[in-house]
DNA sequence: CTGTTAGCGCATTCAT
DNA sequence: ATGAATGCGCTAACAG
């Protein structure tokens, strides 16, 4: 265009206060520039920072992120996602909160979707979001401190992340058992992420026949610590415990919780980047910054009766 | 319409798989059916359940809730809100995360907005969302247990809720001072909602010249408890402490935290109901269910040296 | 009560 | 390099 024309245009824009109309654009192009984050009706613990990071990435890519709260089982959420995509309201869906095992049924029209903490094709990305390797590190570290019998209080097994941690727990125990005399699992108790589940796991146990607990998260760990105290056991004097999440309160509790810090923002960013890459038919760039980090604090120490 | 026509129509809908097109609807009517929740760039503690409840209410009212993360000072967020409303992208804006004191500048076109935890006209709704009366109840209860000198570790004073609690703290102390010999404030320390701020408030104090702490929230309270322990003081033996929020970890900590439970979902619901009422030009229904509730647990007890 | 019609503001194609 | 013309799918207003 001629510079003169471009200037004339700019003037007109200024004079009339012109702004492109999203609705007309959408109608004409057939692309809504909307992506939808679907949250289960029962959300409680899902971190806002993850959601916010996803929204931020969406915004930077020119998309608007809508939040839809859908109650009921995961099949209903899948249904809703299919509707959103088929109706053209939304170009892509991000499933948050939990990751149903069965995956997502077909029939998604032209849209794309990503299940948070679970990447479907070729399982790429699992290494980022559902990474459970810190569990292995925790067990190794505790073994060095003399611990031999480990209890795992797991999260609900329909969460990919909870499943990954449980599997890593069992695999790591099995691996070390070959090398280290007497190292074994004292069992896996499946809880529901709640402090109560950690409390119950310890309180209802006949005998405390372990010296270390790998808890599903810091909240569960807190429940377990309390139950141990009520049985007259000290942390870490008698039992060591490792949580997950690095909650602020865990840093200041007594004892402060050893835990796995998780970069929530990085998780949200990665998930949305993946969705947007899918929408554009590009390859998602794999961030190589680890999103988890094991932190040793006061709740872990030498196993009792260790020379 | 004739039942015959209605049937003929239904058949056609089924046959063609007709679904109304949102974009066309928006273009034609000029109403986007979108409301936007604006989150500051630095969100950390804002509860997802509040956001989810707001989204749920929006959905039920036929609106789509979008999330926009806007970094920078509150003026920038206000600017962005103005753009969203002026461009017609969004019909209403809900400011979340913090509530800048200065309020929101004019120039909002035809849109409506609601600042979370702060209702502007006639100050209705403040009673619901920024209600600080539990602080008064806590002080009264502690006074009955013999406490006379109270410290308040407050939240940042650009949060309406933090300001309301501070003011209620001072007012309640003044009120009781008239009746009860020796009852007084040991001071207000303004923090930033962090555990560190609670820790510092106690750790940096020359002398522990109080027997009760009203903390901005449970996280702050946790920091304060830790600092007290490090000074060799027991909770509640030497100092009683009350938090705010009823975090799950606080229920299982030792000592478990006395606190003010807040119905996060109710807060999100109320805020969005208000926004939607504004959009429709109706009066918002005032829910009369209280959103806060004082809970006494182990972190509070009789003042030391009380007969 | 039903059938017809005219734009909403844009992107795209075809003429200049 | 610019201008003019055609729908996208709907709603509202009107005609039958």
Automatic annotation (TrEMBL), chains A, B:
- Tell me, what is one Gene Ontology molecular-function annotation carried by this entry? transcription cis-regulatory region binding
Keyword Manganese listed? The answer is no
HTH lacI-type domain residues = 1-29
**Mind telling me what this protein is named?**
LacI family transcriptional regulator
Q: Supply the alphabetized keyword list.
A: DNA-binding, Transcription, Transcription regulation
Highest taxon of the source?
A: Bacteria
């Amino acid at each position: 265009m001629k510079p003169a024309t471009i200037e004339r245009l700019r003037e007109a824009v200024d004079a009339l206060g012109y702004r492109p109309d999203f609705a007309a654009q959408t109608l004409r192009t057939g692309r809504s520039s909307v992506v939808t984050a679907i949250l289960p009706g029962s959300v409680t613990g899902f971190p806002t920072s993850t959601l916010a990071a996803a929204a931020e990435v969406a915004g930077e890519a020119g998309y608007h992120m809508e939040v839809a709260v859908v109650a009921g089982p995961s099949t209903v959420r899948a249904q809703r996602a299919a509707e959103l995509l088929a109706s053209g309201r939304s170009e892509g869906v991000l499933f948050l909160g939990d990751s149903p095992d069965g995956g997502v049924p077909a029939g998604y029209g032209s849209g794309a979707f990503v299940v948070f903490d679970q990447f479907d094709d070729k399982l790429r990305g699992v290494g980022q979001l559902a990474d459970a390797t810190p569990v292995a590190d925790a067990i190794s570290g505790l073994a060095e401190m003399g611990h031999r019998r480990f209890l795992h209080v797991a999260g609900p097994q329909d969460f990919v992340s909870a499943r990954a941690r449980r599997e890593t727990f069992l695999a790591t125990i099995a691996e070390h058992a070959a090398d280290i005399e007497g190292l074994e699992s004292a069992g896996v108790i499946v809880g529901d992420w709640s402090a109560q589940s950690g409390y119950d796991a310890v309180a209802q146990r006949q005998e405390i026949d372990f010296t270390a607990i790998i808890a599903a998260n810091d909240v569960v760990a807190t429940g377990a610590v309390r139950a141990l105290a009520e049985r007259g056991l000290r942390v870490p004097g008698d039992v060591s415990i490792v949580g997950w999440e690095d909650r602020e309160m865990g840093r200041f509790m007594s004892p402060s919780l050893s835990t796995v810090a998780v970069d929530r923002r990085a998780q949200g960013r990665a998930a949305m980047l993946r969705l947007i890459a899918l929408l554009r038919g590009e390859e998602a760039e794999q961030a190589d910054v680890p999103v988890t980090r094991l932190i040793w604090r006061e709740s872990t120490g030498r196993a009792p009766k260790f020379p």
